[in-house]
Specification:
Mean pLDDT: 88
Number of strands: 0
Number of helices: 6
Shape: globular
Low-confidence stretches: none
Order of helices and strands: HHHHHH
Largest sheet: none
Radius of gyration: 19 Å
Helix content: over 70%
Strand content: under 5%
Distance between the termini: 59 Å
Structural class: mainly alpha
């Protein structure tokens, strides 16, 4: 049993050392996820809506997808023999998308918890005006509105 524990620690340490360049990005994504989770629960309590276990499970799956995608991307970039800096840069682009999505969700939750003009402005700025700067996203949003 002692040898198995040593091997597991060795393997775990090796994996942690390999993915060490992603430590700060993964921590940021995890912290934003936890903040979104907390504000989502606070919103449900404030509005008096029931908290469903299926939504809580989905939140955990969402975090695993975020972290798994970034880990897989880093591994693929490394397998393609790209430099460490390039691999980390590709993962950072993914992380910025997660920051945008989770940040917008946090602002929406805070807006529902407390009706605030400043939060409404920030939400409008990020959800509408920011997307207008990216023509393809604006076209996608128009298509979604037309379909609904």
């Amino acid at each position: 049993m002692n040898d198995i524990l040593k091997w597991l620690l060795f393997i775990g340490g090796s994996i942690a050392a390999y993915f060490e360049p992603l430590q700060a990005v993964m921590l940021l994504v995890t912290m934003l996820f936890m903040l979104d989770f907390a504000t989502g629960i606070a919103k449900a309590v404030r509005l008096g809506t029931p908290i469903k276990s299926s939504k809580l499970k989905w939140s955990l799956y969402k975090l695993l997808v975020y972290l798994g995608t970034m880990t897989l991307t880093f591994f693929i970039c490394e397998s393609m023999r790209l430099s460490k800096d390039t691999s980390v840069s590709v993962v950072n682009v993914e992380a910025w998308f997660v920051v945008y999505i989770e940040g917008l969700s946090i602002i929406e939750n805070l807006q529902k918890i407390r009706d605030n003009r400043f939060l409404q402005f920030i939400h409008y700025l990020l959800a509408v005006e920011f997307l207008k700067r990216f023509r393809i996203l604006a076209d996608f949003m128009k298509q979604e509105e037309k379909d609904n």
